[in-house]
Write a structure and sequence with these properties.
By secondary structure, the protein is α+β, with helices and mostly antiparallel strands. The chain has 2 domains: 152 residues, no CATH class; 48 residues, no CATH class. The chain is built from 8 helices and 8 strands. A two-stranded antiparallel ribbon has the order 1-2. Strands 3-4 form a two-stranded antiparallel sheet. The protein has a two-stranded antiparallel ribbon with strand order 5-8.
Length: 207
C-alpha cells in the first residue's frame, strides 16, 4: 500500500472509478497508450545512448502493441521491438525468399531487427566450425498433456547453430534498453496517465 500511495496509483484508481462504464474502456486505452509512448521514447533514447543509430532498423521499430487477448476489463500494451512478421506492411514490402539452414524456404525482410534480443540480453559468440563433421545424438524427456512421460532422441549436426551456441565460450555484453526504459520511465509514465485521466474526468464533468 505504501508504494501505491507514493506513486499515486490509489488516487488514480479511485478517480477512474468515477467514469461511466461506457467511457472507461476508451479512457483506459488513452491512459495506457500515453504511458506507453513515454516508455517507448525512453527506450529509443537509451538505445541511442548505447550506440544504436537513431535511423537504424532496431530503434525505428521500438514500439508498443496492444494485447488483443487481455482479460475483460483490462487494457494491456507491450513494449518491445517489431520484427519478422510483426513488422509494418510498409517495412515488409522489401522482402525476398531464402533457403534456411534446415532447407525450408523462408521469407527474409530487409532491415529486420531480429537481433534485438541479442542487444537487450547479450549473446554468445558463435563462430563457424569449418570442417566439423558428424552428429551428436541427444535424448529428450517430455511430458504430454495427459501427464504421460516419454523420451525421444534426435541427431544434431556438430556444425549446427544450436551445437555451436552450446559450445561457445565467448560472450557479447548486453546493452539493454527495454528493461531500463521500464524502470527509468515508470514515474513519468504514471504521471502522464494520470494527466490523461484528469482530462477525461474534466470532460465528463466529474470533480
Amino acid at each position: 500500500m505504501a508504494d501505491k500511495d507514493i506513486l499515486g496509483i490509489g488516487d488514480m484508481k479511485a478517480n477512474f472509478a468515477k467514469l461511466r462504464d461506457e467511457v472507461r474502456n476508451r479512457t483506459s486505452r488513452r491512459m495506457v497508450v500515453a504511458g506507453g509512448n513515454v516508455l517507448k521514447r525512453k527506450a529509443k533514447q537509451i538505445a541511442q545512448a548505447n550506440g544504436s543509430v537513431r535511423t537504424g532498423a532496431m530503434v525505428k521499430n521500438i514500439a508498443i502493441k496492444r494485447e488483443a487477448q487481455a482479460g475483460d476489463g483490462t487494457t494491456q500494451y507491450h513494449l518491445g521491438v517489431r520484427h519478422g512478421r510483426n513488422l509494418t506492411a510498409k517495412a515488409k514490402k522489401n522482402s525476398k525468399l531464402a533457403v534456411a539452414s534446415t532447407g525450408r524456404i523462408v521469407k527474409r525482410y530487409a532491415d529486420d531487427p531480429y537481433y534485438w534480443r541479442f542487444v537487450e540480453f547479450g549473446h554468445n559468440v558463435v563462430s563457424r566450425k569449418t570442417g566439423e563433421t558428424g552428429n551428436t545424438e541427444i535424448t529428450y524427456t517430455r511430458k504430454s498433456r495427459s501427464g504421460k512421460v516419454f523420451t525421444y532422441t534426435r541427431k544434431r549436426s556438430n556444425d549446427s547453430l544450436r551445437a555451436r551456441r552450446t559450445s561457445a565460450t565467448g560472450t557479447v555484453a548486453a546493452k539493454p534498453f527495454i528493461g531500463p526504459a521500464l524502470e527509468q520511465g515508470r514515474a513519468e509514465a504514471l504521471e502522464v496517465m494520470n494527466d490523461r485521466l484528469q482530462a477525461d474526468l474534466a470532460k465528463a464533468g466529474k470533480p
